[in-house]
Amino acid sequence: MATIEVKNLSKVYGSGETKVTALDSVNVTIEQGQFVAVMGPSGCGKSTLLHLIGGLDRPTDGSVFIEGSDISKMSDKTLTELRRRKMGFIFQFFNLIPVLDAIENTALPLILDGVKPELARTKASEWLSRNKLDGRGKHRPDELSGGQQQRVAISRAMVSDPVIILADEPTGNLDSRSGDEIASTLRKIVTDWKRTVLMVTHDPRIAAYADRIIFLKDGKVVDDTLLNGSNGENAKRLKEKVESL
Amino acid sequence: MRIQILLAWRYLWGRKQRMVLTTLAVVFGVTLLFGLNAMIPAMMESFRHNMVTTAGKVDISISSESNNPFEESVLKDLSEIEDISFYTGILTKNVVLPESLGGTVNKLTGSSAVTVTGVDVATAQNVRNYSLIEGRFLEPNDTNATVIPQLLADKMELKVGDIFTIPSSEGVSDLKVVGILSLSASAGLDEIFVPLPDAQTILNLPQKINTIDILIKSGADRDVVVSSVLSKLGPNFKSGAIQTGEELASALTMGQSMMWLFGVMALAMAGFIIFNTFRTVVAERRRDLGMLRAIGASKQTIMGLIMVESLLQGIIGTGLGLICGYLFSYLLVSAVGNIFAGMLRVTIGAPVITTVNLIGSILLGVGFTVGSGYFPARSAMKVTPLEAMRPTLGSIEYRQNNRRAIWGLGLLTLSVVGLLLGNVSIAGLSGVVFLVGIILIAPVMVKPVADIFGKLISSIYSREGKLAQGNLTRQPSRAAITASSMMIGLAICIAMMAMITSIEHGFTTYLDKSLGTDYLLMPPSLVLGSGNLGVNQGFIEKIKSIDGVEEATSLRLATSQVDGTTLQLIGIDPLVYPKIAGLEFSEGDSVEAYKAMEQGSAIIVNGIFAVTNNVKTGDVLSLKSPQGERKYTVVGIGFDYLNAKISTGYVSQSDLAKDFNSESDLLLLVNRKPDATAEEVTPALQTVIKEFPTFSLIDSNEFKTEQMGMFKMAMSVFYIMVIMLAVPGLIAMANTMSINVIERTREIGMLRAVGATQTQVKRMVFAESVLLSALGTTMGILVGLFLSYLLVKAIGVIGFRTDFFFPTSGIIASIVVGLVFGIIAAMVPARQAANTVIVEALQYE
Ligand SMILES: Nc1ncnc2c1ncn2[C@@H]1O[C@H](COP(=O)(O)OP(=O)(O)OP(=O)(O)O)[C@@H](O)[C@H]1O
Ligand SMILES: [Mg+2]
User: Fold this and answer.
1) pLDDT (0 to 100) of residue B109
2) pLDDT for the residue B110
């Protein structure tokens, strides 16, 4: 059973003259422990795909299976629960709650799930130190750099032991050094923790950290490549590919 | 729940200024609601206490259903009832002590008084225990003797053997103090005891008593005895002591509903403020909320988040409001307590917290806050997880307000039609409809109003004015809601002022008409019923016999009940009264009415009674009298100045004597002969009055001037209330301005970065605030005009018909208040905006 299975997935926005087909019969299967990057030109449907897989939006047609169950048929309540337990989200704009400190932000999914506060805090601190944020637990987001904020967000995504981590342009708001840090953190999540990561990115250098690259164009999968070899080579190859498409 | 509370606290704490302002609005509303309502029960309480203490400590007290005196002979009927060990008849009444007899007289508050109680010397001591500290109790052959309580003896410096002079229906009565009682120094009046026949003379009630005190056999069931006594005496009697001053109690009850109204209105304004705040809160946090949804927060959790936040504010605000309310009430009671103490002749203690008030205030305070948070919370619930994915855009309102405005316009038309229909309750309803209509239209009014006033401001500060105008119109709903809460305050202000101007005008007319005579011979207290002592025919005869007096007529008094409501009855002489004074009629023909009154069994009722009991000309009323139910036909609706405020009916003096056993003159109206001068007549009147010290001679013109002065003073209390209601409008404006400035921190930073000076930024904020208040003021004036017309109509219906005066002073006051509020509200936010640190502002998210 694949962790993620996307079957004939379509998403159409609007109707009539303003109709936009963001995704057009997409089929993708992703196994556990894979680090997948989604690439493609702006407006090709990358975010849309991610949203549908994450259960943030409903497809127009087709279905998404997470560990075998069809999420497109789930009620909002079950879907919310699924997001809480099985998925972790990392956003381009970090999206930390400004009035909570790093530990509290990280512990949010657990607290939402009714985990005892002490336990939640302990788990949160563990994840913060794994992501090299020891001693930053009591800091509020405005006291952290962008890269640090994103590592708090990754801790938050990991704290509830999700199966899938979804990240939309996680490095889009960061300089290249911070971007590399984030990408290697995600890499570690896959290698050390056997999670499945699905990441949208523009940047071939960041995509090069992944195991597999899915290229989208006009809502269709146009290429699906497995990467092996060194990061540097991969990055170069990807860059050429992006330019060719 | 934990997560909601944690986040609610943190978010509230993160925006202290906004939290303080929003909470302040709740505090203010609850303060008004709770404080005002704690004051009235304080008065009622002491009032009731007073009545209870005068009832004394006997097993059973019986009095007539209508609180009027009844025949002594009734007592005979009780002799056959078993289980009664003793009974005694009593005639008791409060009598005002005029200044000349050692009383203290205060024009505004009334005067000091004593309760004169006539007791059957032979039986009195069987029923009640009179413990004497000096002298002896009354004895069977005593006449003009009295036993007085120690407290009074000390106050008046009286000893056993001294003479205590009190007013009497025959002028004065000189009573010899034979004993001094050690009665408790409880609240209420000093009660002096005299032999029953003396009391009957003093009060001009021969052979009458008004209370029967009964002592039951030990072991007997009190309820059984009460019911056998009542069935023996018939339906005109009740168990319980005679009750005086019910009219005042009902006036207080009416006051209480006014207080609730004020409080609820203040809370409604607080509701607007809270609503605005939470709308902003939700807009500000869309991305946070979306993220929470994405990482697995349920819709309920999100809704709960906002609701808990409003609940917290509601609880804090209400809690503080209760404390402030108590203090406020304490201040009020000590400020007006003296005035009331004099009027009701009781001392008022601390504010009383009734359960109803406490629970009501808590429910309304918390309820309004949570209720106002509800709709924003609903919209927060609808935030999708996708919102977490987008960058925040400045929140600009794109929504179409036109649909709502059309609804509003419809409502406005409806309300105007309702007003024109002329029916009171429809007109009252259309007031509410009008208000709602204006609130619905408000968002589309923002732009035109901002354009018009923006031009004005632009002519002074051209650049800042333009910017402010644009800023204000960005969030028309927010501006409209803020303006609405200001509108309510100002509208009430204008309406009240209009009403006061109109009443003032009408008042003079009424005074002239109902006090159209040259002289008034007045009892010490203005409200006729309270403790004034009537005199017998001898007095008016003496007045009439004075050379130079053309005509004199009197007013008499009794009380009755109609369907459970107390009705004060005034006895007039239908032949003479219309000639020299006259009632102001709002229904029925005066000539016909007085004629019918001569025939007997006819009554003219005043507007208050007619409205509250839904009585029309031609109706037949069943009046409770000591002799049973009596049918009276309503022949007109009208009133005189002195009795305008309480439910009153006017009947002929012969009816009053026949049915209500009242034959004492309480107030005299006297006219000079045209050729007689004041110099001749006044001294002659004064000579007669010397013998009847209850009365004071008053020149009608002086009296009118004095009454006008008092009227104006009473109205100033209203003004204070009105001003209080304007305060939430100020809070609303300050709140909105602070929201606006914080929301635009980034823009302000940008403006500063491209070279706007601090002064320019300040001016921009001030201009926006003044524009906002201009909107509120415009709306307030519109609604105020409508309401004032409505109010003047409404008081016309209860008989106080006056012309409508355009509330110029109210409008001017509103404009001034609006401008001042606009400036005050912007002070802190403007400084904040000007001090924006450019770099931080650009990072601000
Ligand atoms: N809510 C929406 N309503 C209408 N059209 C939408 C909506 N969301 C996305 N689209 C359209 O769907 C298409 C795919 O959008 P999507 O956001 O998935 O692109 P993307 O690949 O993530 O682009 P980018 O790299 O710029 O983020 C685009 O053409 C976009 O205009
Ligand atoms: Mg995208």
Assistant:
1) 39
2) 43
Check residue B686 and give left, alpha or beta (phi > 0: left; psi -120 to 50: alpha): alpha
What's the confidence (pLDDT) of residue A182? 92
**Binary contact (B295, A156; C-beta < 8 A):** yes
Establish whether residue A22 lines the binding site of ligand 1, counting it when its CB lies within 6 angstroms of any ligand atom.
Answer: yes
Pairing status of strand A220-226 against strand A212-217: antiparallel
Radius of gyration of chain A (CA): 18
CA of A244 to the centre of ligand 1 (A): 22
Interface contact B11-A85, CB threshold 8 A: no
**Which one of B2, B296, B299 has the shortest CB-CB distance to A109?**
B296
Is any ligand 1 atom within 6 A of the Cβ of residue A123?
no
Q: For residues B70-77, give the mean pLDDT.
A: 86
Distance, in Å, from the CA atom of B592 to the CA atom of B576, rounded to the nearest integer, reads 15
Q: Residue B291 is nearest to which of A84, A95, A99, comparing CB atoms? A: A95
Taking Cα atoms as reference points, which of B354, B345, B352 lies closest to residue B187?
B345
A212 close to A225: Cβ distance less than 8 angstroms:
yes
- Among A9, A12, A13, the mutation site with the greatest number of ligand 1 atoms within 8 A of its Cβ is A13
| CA gap B692, B537 in Å, rounded | 12
Closest ligand 1 atom to Cα of B386: 1
Contacts of B413-422 spanning 24+ positions with Cβ under 8 A: B415/B786, B419/B786, B419/B789, B419/B790, B419/B793, B422/B793
What is the distance in angstroms between the Cα of B285 and the nearest Cα belonging to chain A? 9
Average pLDDT, chain B: 80
Residue B51: pLDDT over 50: no
Rounded-to-integer distance, Cα A183 and Cα A181, Å: 6
Cα separation, B733 vs B821, whole angstroms = 8
Q: Are strands B648-652 and B565-572 parallel, antiparallel or unpaired?
A: parallel
Count of the separate structural domains present in chain A: 1
| CATH code assigned at A98 | 3.40.50.300
Q: Which domain holds residue A81?
A: 4-243
CA A73 to ligand 1 center in whole angstroms: 23
Q: Which residue has the least CA distance to atom 18 on ligand 1?
A: A45
Residue-wise pLDDT tens digits, B422-463: 666 677 777 778 878 888 888 888 888 878 887 777 777 766
CB B345 within 8 A of CB B189: yes
Listed as ranges, residues in chain A with pLDDT below 70 are none
